[in-house]
Design brief:
The complex is a heterodimer of chains A (about 1000) and B (about 475). Chain A is of the alpha+beta class. Helices cover about 35% and strands about 10% of the residues of chain A. In chain A, a hairpin with a 6-residue loop joins strand 11 and strand 12. The two termini of chain A are about 50 Å apart. By secondary structure, chain B is α/β, with parallel strands linked by helices. Chain B folds into two domains: about 110 residues, no CATH class; about 325 residues, Alkaline Phosphatase, subunit A, CATH 3.40.720. The chains are: A alpha+beta (about 1000), B alpha/beta (about 475).
């Protein structure tokens, strides 16, 4: 019976191959389906093993239906949207057609609508629903004072015009399109997506017509004369999770990405269950496997690879540069200048062929004698400015764990000058190291960064995902002389894993915010060589002091282990890297100095190879390498080289400051085949061309293949029965708690028949073409739709439960519903009430506080969290950096989706972990403290007044007598405790980085924090009713 | 107060006055569950196991250096792999490289009365060989870590499906109200590439988030935010929670919203967790003998310490305990790296089985040992092994599993499961069966489908059930 289809009448009436007649209209006894559902033996359907028994009543309904002719009526959601007539109802409670539909049904069921909610509840409800924030006490006062008949409508207009409205709508859209700030697979590295998020924010705020919004996301890049904004919108096509895991099979991942796009696009716009058709024809809904793959073919024109690189200049494939014309011109100018400087240097080098020849001989000789090797220094003192503890390992044995050939290796050996940072781990730190070089002549200072498994920041830094050495300075003190500052002219690193804007020169550029940084290469020991402006003579008594500054905004990007070295040769190249690690690891005698075996160092291996090749046999690249190394190591060219290096850094910093976004770039479409059972290895399936599911007909594109733009146009065509219904149904849920059809992700046959099919259709029609109060509205007008919803009586009703009701689930909406506000709103409300919230529209994502070690299970790179600074700690939660494999735990605990997959229905759970977050999470403890401070500052002198003030801010009402009693008692207790131990009070006040006003008494703040915390934990604060 | 009152109130009031959230809760039996029962009530059939401890060896342990000896592969070491086996099959980092046989790198021997064949590097596990069932015919579909973990944990590669622990707590409820029903522990060792593990692996996906696994942290608070804020005394914390609950009960009086009572009970459980979790991780009452048995040093976050913690979690009624041990990804130096991994896991794994047995808990605790896939019988880079999906080994013990047997086998070269292949959904079906659940009947409606852990597949492996 596998071929049997009961969802299509023509098929159900046909005799099967085995001679069975499933349905004979008018003759239930001859109909197999009736026989089978009534069967008493093993033939019974559904089969016993399915444990889905039909009731007698259900069986009889089937029999009756067959007897009456087995008429099929197409599934409601696939019928064209026609605006149904509005029931003729009038009365004070009928404010608009929504009420007419709702109340007509209520009347039929013998139910009555509830009265309008009180003004306080109403303002709180509509403000939460439209902006995700509670109203302020001032807004409440204004509303309560305004007795004009349109007071509420004015509020709605105000809210719809606010940026916060755009933020709240965007949040849900970002769930649906599974927007994240990271790639979602494996290393889950951060990618540039936020400009797309900002596009969505602006689109909602500015009320962009939904059809245009749809077109720009699916096919903005294909629109004639596409604007930059439209191209940004098309980043929608790149938001699927992407993997950079080595050894992945590209075809498999291309199949995954394609399937992800089909699932997402069909769920977001069509609430269709097409994802099921990846492996098999759908049994319930009219989607065949072929439909799935033909839909996937729309996206086969997107430039992408199966393995999506997550680092380096090729990271994330196509990227769109969001530069202004002015920025572009500036960048071109910098490039031009760089080019001419490089050309001039090349000319100089070419003019000195003779000298170069001698230099080659000299350097190879020096190298073979080991003269190029760095002399590692044994420090005599090492201190840190902000509390870190530095330990010197000279002769002392040091254990280290590091990666070699892909495995973690361990060794314990004499430290030979390694300095290990431990103890307190401040955000910024300066290390000061003193050593005595002895008598000698030196040309450069080297800093050798040691990887170690114990270091959370890419195994090199004490935090974050990298170190950032923002500035290095040094001085020399000779006996009996004043200290003399050392001048560095050129900084060079071995250049692996550096972002261009974090090049070595940033460590000596005089800017304490920019730095040399290595963040996307694992298992390497970076090394930076700092060329001295002139040769340095030292004597037996000389002491050199080196300061390593870590002043980056990135917290705890401080080096964990390092060594200092000096070079006496003019041109010792930076060491480090895998080869250095190998040399160290394979050293035969653990007691022997590293230097003794490091003779293949001092020249970069690829340069050495070129030098050892006869000149006539060298490749062009090798010639270039040698020439570059010659210029780099020639002291009389060092000013030219340094000038270029400085300008390169400037250019790269300028370039990096220009935002980018994942780009959708059209290429000649890849061939798309039906994959039997989703198996990407099977290449025998039929080739398919882009087309919409057959049940909806065919796109008329003549001879040419349909494109994403054709798809978008079809999705928002007035003939599409699903798009508008899906959108209005989802919006309905956000304003009432449940959709008109309950199943958000499926309007198909396994979804729910809507409680008010006519209302869905009326709303869908009104959304596409406003006709009720259409002044100022346009087609596909989201604000018009929502204004219509929130100004209805149905929305404005009280949510107070009725004593007795025939509609326990309140699906018929004889009252409003109550539900917890979303994760982001829980966060934002605490911050708003406490005065901490920093409202700023758009911009790069931010990092609020997060528990230490939360990212420990991540790797490539190994990383720790580094929270934002200043205002960015207090932004709306919408802007939180969305790390998809480890979403910020505060949001995750409160049911925010990880956005690894399309989500159109957040759950609202109620768990002990949520209680722990609201009670103990530093984000909420700080909010309670700031709220406590605010109460003390602004709530008047008496506790009773302060409580009034606190309730007004948090709940927009006065406390009741009982509430007063509970909180007064708590306050007294806390006061006594904190007065007795101010030290404990200070500890509580230390949570969070916002300031404690110096004029407030710590014990008093701590006691009021305790009260504020209890208020912020009230169920009512996080409930919209 | 709390749950009982909540339930009574609920029954008295019928469904009136329930907010949406409460309704959702109701539909998921949250109100009834409350630490006792789940949606499978009564059980589909009598259970043999009450709980599961899954010792998840992440990275993909080589079956050929652990529990699946292949003399023929040894004999063919260095020779080309027969193309008949490998042609058209999925391959990871060895794509486009010559495929060469790479014999097992360590000796095997017979252990126990059951004469189970195991690598000599695992003498302690060998010591409990008679309690163990070795399944040598596992196979999976996903050849990269992240999707393979997702498949093993959720039965699907689509993100957002519930993990097995969530399914089990959803189905069976929890036996404790002081700890989460599903706990995840993680340890890292040496000798491999530390592959990342996404939080998705213990997500409740489309199930309510109360069924999500709670990952205990090895640094900071064991459970996030379990510690009261600095400067807040235990007494003041208790009074604060009492105040919140008193305020909320008042709110309930005024608003008549049962969701408030749920919130009150969650705050009470949060408060209990603030003492039960520190008590749980406090190993000071464990005898030196026990610590030695596991090779555990309390507080070191090692696999051994986590095994001991797992026993403590099991004793306290946690339903599903999953220990990830990372670093089995041996693309190179498989010989020396497996020595390291054996050192890290052998003693503690055996200790857990022994300890559970001594405490009479092994008979109703299913212990599972295995990873997301196996490793190639072909060499990678001359000394390592690549990812491999066609055949690998799992160990099962306790909870109604036949002790001292081997089940299934790979072919002579250890390439593909040949005799009695066990697919991932078969494993899931068997595990649920032991817990008293018919895998076909534990479903949740999503996108028009009755989603289940085993997808559309899965057969209970009856032959390994005692």
């Amino acid at each position: 019976m596998a071929g049997l289809r009961l969802d299509i009448r023509g098929e159900a009436l046909k005799q099967t191959r085995s001679g069975i007649l499933p349905i004979v209209p008018g003759d239930p006894d001859k109909s197999a389906i009736v026989q089978r559902v009534f069967a008493k033996d093993a033939k019974i359907m559904p089969p016993q093993f399915a444990h889905k028994e039909l009731t007698e009543a259900q069986k009889n309904t089937i029999r009756k239906w067959v007897a009456e002719g087995a008429e099929y009526e197409g599934h409601w959601a696939y019928q064209p949207i026609r605006r149904p007539p509005v029931p003729q109802l009038s009365g004070a409670n009928v404010r608009n057609p929504i009420d007419a539909f709702i109340q007509e049904r209520l009347a039929r069921e013998g139910l009555k609508p509830s009265a309008e909610a009180d003004k306080r509840t109403l303002l709180r409800r509509v403000t939460f629903d439209l902006t995700g924030l509670p109203p302020t006490p001032e807004e409440m006062d204004a509303f309560l004072k305004d007795t004009s008949p349109d007071a509420y409508d004015k509020v709605v207009d105000r809210l719809l015009a606010s940026p916060a409205y755009g933020e709240q709508r965007a949040m849900y859209w970002l769930d649906a399109v599974r927007y994240g700030d990271s790639a979602g697979f494996h290393g889950d590295n951060l990618w540039p997506a936020w400009p797309y998020r900002d596009y969505v924010l602006r689109a909602f705020r500015d009320n962009m017509p939904f059809d245009r919004f749809t077109r720009e996301q699916l096919a903005g890049d294909l629109l004639p004369g596409a604007t930059l904004d439209q191209k940004v919108a098309s980043a929608y096509n790149r938001l699927n999770r992407a993997s950079a895991e080595g050894g992945l099979q590209p075809k498999e991942y291309l199949a995954k990405y394609g399937a992800d796009r089909v699932r997402t696009t069909t769920t977001v716009w069509l609430a269709a269950t097409m994802g099921c058709a990846e492996c098999h024809d759908h049994k319930f809904d009219p989607y065949a496997s072929k439909d799935f793959y033909a839909f996937k073919a729309f996206f086969a024109d997107i430039r992408e690879t199966g393995l999506v690189p997550d680092r380096g200049t090729r990271a994330w494939g196509s990227k769109l540069l969001l530069a202004t014309d002015e920025q572009k011109a500036q960048l071109d100018g910098l490039d031009e200048k760089l080019n001419s400087l490089r050309k001039a240097l090349t000319a100089k080098v070419e003019a000195r062929a003779e000298d170069r020849w001698r230099w080659e001989e000299r350097i190879l000789e020096s190298h073979s004698k080991g003269e190029l090797a760095w002399t590692y220094q044994h420090p005599v003192a090492a201190t840190a400015e902000h509390g870190a503890k530095l330990t010197i390992y000279n002769e002392e044995p040091l254990e280290s764990n590091f990666y070699l050939n892909g495995s973690l290796a361990s060794e314990k050996k004499r430290g030979d000058g390694v300095i290990v940072a431990g103890g307190p781990n401040p955000d910024n730190e300066t290390y000061t190291v003193k050593f005595r070089p002895g008598a000698g002549t030196w040309t450069a200072l080297g800093i050798d960064v040691y990887q170690d498994e114990s270091l959370p920041g890419n195994r090199m830094a004490r935090g974050a995902d990298r170190f950032a050495l923002t500035e290095v300075d040094a001085e020399i003190e000779n006996p009996g002389q004043k200290p003399d500052k050392l001048q560095f002219v050129l900084a060079t690193s071995a250049q692996f894993g550096e972002l261009p804007e974090n090049g070595a020169m940033a460590a000596i550029d005089g800017n304490r915010k920019t730095g040399w940084s290595v963040n996307f290469v694992e298992a390497r020991n970076p090394f930076i060589a700092l060329r001295l402006s002139s040769k340095l003579q030292t004597s037996a008594g000389s002491v050199i002091t080196v300061n390593l500054h870590h002043d980056s905004d990135l917290r705890r990007a401080t080096i964990g282990r390092f060594r200092l070295a000096l070079s006496s040769a003019g041109f010792s190249a930076p060491e480090g890297g895998q080869s250095a690690a190998k040399v160290r690891a394979k050293k035969p005698d653990p007691e022997m100095s590293t230097l003794a075996v490091a003779t293949d160092l001092g020249i970069p291996p690829e340069v050495l190879k070129a030098l050892q090749t006869d000149e006539q046999d060298r490749s062009e690249d090798e010639n270039k390498l040698v020439a570059e190394f010659y210029a780099w190591s020639s002291r009389d060219l060092q000013d030219d080289v340094a000038r270029i290096a400085r300008l390169e850094l400037t250019r790269n910093q300028f370039d990096a400051a220009i935002p980018r976004v994942l780009g959708t770039e059209r290429i000649h479409p890849r061939l798309t085949r039906v994959l039997a059972r989703g198996n990407f290895l099977d290449e025998s399936g039929a080739v398919v061309h882009p087309s919409i599911p057959a049940v909806f007909g065919k796109l008329d594109t003549g001879d040419r293949d349909a494109t994403r733009l054709d798809l978008a146009n079809w999705i928002v065509s007035k003939d599409n029965p699903l798009t508008a219904r899906v959108f209005v149904n989802r919006q309905w849920r956000l304003f009432f708690g449940t959709g008109l059809s309950k199943v958000m992700e499926d309007l198909g046959s396994q979804g729910e028949w809507p409680v008010h099919p006519e209302l869905i259709d009326w709303l869908a029609a009104e959304f596409m073409e406003p006709s009720w109060k259409p002044e100022g509205a346009h087609a596909w007008d989201v604000k018009h739709l929502l204004r219509t919803v929130v100004t209805s009586h149905t929305y404005r009703q009280s949510s107070a439960p009725a004593a007795d009701t025939k509609d326990p689930d309140n699906r018929l909406l004889s009252r409003q519903n109550r539900f917890r506000i979303e994760a982001e709103s829980v966060h934002d409300t605490a911050l708003l009430v406490s005065g901490l919230l920093k409202e700023r529209f758009g911009g790069p994502s931010v990092r609020p506080y997060e528990p230490e070690g939360y990212l420990l299970a991540m790797n490539f790179p190994k990383r720790d969290y580094s929270e934002s600074r200043g205002d960015d700690l207090y932004r709306r939660a919408l802007y939180t950096e969305w790390q998809r494999t480890f979403l910020h735990p505060t949001l995750l605990t409160l049911d925010a989706p990880t956005r690894e997959e399309c989500t159109v229905n957040r759950s609202g759970s109620n768990t002990p972990l949520q209680a722990l977050v609201l009670l103990n999470d530093p984000i909420f403890v700080e909010a309670a403290r700031a709220f406590g401070q605010k109460i003390l500052k602004e709530g008047g002198p008496k506790f009773d007044d302060r409580l009034d003030y606190a309730f007004r801010r948090a709940l927009l009402r006065s406390p009741e007598k009982e509430e007063r009693k509970i909180l007064t008692e708590l306050y007294k207790r806390a006061s006594t405790e904190y007065k007795a131990s101010p030290v404990e009070a200070k500890k509580l006040l230390s949570v969070g980085e916002s300031a404690v006003p110096p004029d407030l008494d710590a014990s008093e703040v701590a006691a009021m924090t305790t009260v504020a915390r209890a208020i912020l934990n009230m169920h009512e604060v996080i409930t919209r009713n | 107060m709390n749950i009982e009152t909540g339930r009574r109130t609920f029954l008295r009031q019928g469904l009136s006055g329930l907010g949406l959230v409460a309704l959702n809760s109701l539909l998921s039996r949250e109100v009834q569950a409350a630490g006792t029962t789940g949606v499978v009530n009564p059980l589909h059939h009598p259970a043999k196991a009450k709980r599961v401890i899954f010792l998840y060896q992440a990275g993909g342990p080589s079956h050929l250096e652990t529990f699946d000896d292949k003399p023929k592969l040894r004999a063919m070491h260095g020779k080309p792999m027969p193309e008949s086996l490998t042609k058209g099959q999925q391959i990871a980092q060895l794509q486009g490289r010559p495929l060469t046989c790479f014999g097992p790198q360590h000796e095997f021997q017979k252990f126990g009365k059951s004469e189970q064949d195991m690598c000599k590097l695992f003498p302690h596990i060998g010591g409990v060989a008679d309690d163990i069932c070795i399944v040598r015919s596992m196979w999976t579909e996903q050849i990269n870590h992240d999707p393979a973990h997702t498949l093993m944990n959720t039965g699907s590669i689509i993100a957002g499906r519930p993990s097995m622990g969530s399914w089990i707590v959803y189905g069976l409820g929890a036996e404790t109200e002081s700890l989460p029903g599903y706990v995840v522990l993680m340890s890292s060792g040496k000798g491999g590439q530390m592959q990342p593990i996404a939080a998705r692996q213990w997500s409740a996906g489309i199930l309510p988030s109360k069924y999500q696994g709670v990952k205990f942290n090895s640094v900071g608070d064991p459970v996030l935010h379990i510690q009261r804020p600095p400067g807040m005394s235990a007494d003041l914390q208790k009074r604060s929670i009492d105040a919140v609950n008193a305020l909320n009960r008042l709110g309930h009086k005024n608003l008549n919203d049962p969701e408030i009572l749920t919130r009150v009970s969650q705050y009470e459980m949060a408060f209990r967790m603030q003492s039960s979790v520190p008590d749980l991780v406090d190993m000071s009452k464990e005898s030196q003998k026990t610590l030695d048995l596991y090779g555990a040093k309390p507080g070191d976050g090692s696999f051994a310490s986590n095994c001991l913690l797992a026993r403590r979690l099991a004793e306290r009624g946690v339903r599903f305990i999953q220990l990830y041990h990372r670093d089995w990804d041996h693309h190179s130096e498989v010989k020396s790296n497996v020595v390291i991994k054996a050192r890290e896991t052998d003693r503690a794994t055996a200790a857990l089985i022994t300890d559970l047995k001594d405490r009479g808990m092994l008979n109703d605790t299913l212990v599972v040992w295995g990873g997301e896939f196996g490793r190639t019988p072909m060499s990678q880079g001359g000394n390592g092994r690549d990812h491999h999906i066609k055949g690998f080994t799992y160990l099962l013990a306790g909870g109604g599993i036949k002790p001292g047997i081997s089940y299934g086998s790979t072919d002579d070269l250890g390439y593909a499961a040949q005799e009695n292949p066990v697919a991932v959904p078969d494993f899931h079906a068997t595990m649920l069966h032991l817990l008293g659940v018919d895998h076909k009947r534990l479903t949740v409606k999503y996108q028009g489908l009755d989603v289940r852990l085993t997808g559309i597949a899965g057969n209970v492996v009856q032959d390994i059930i005692a």
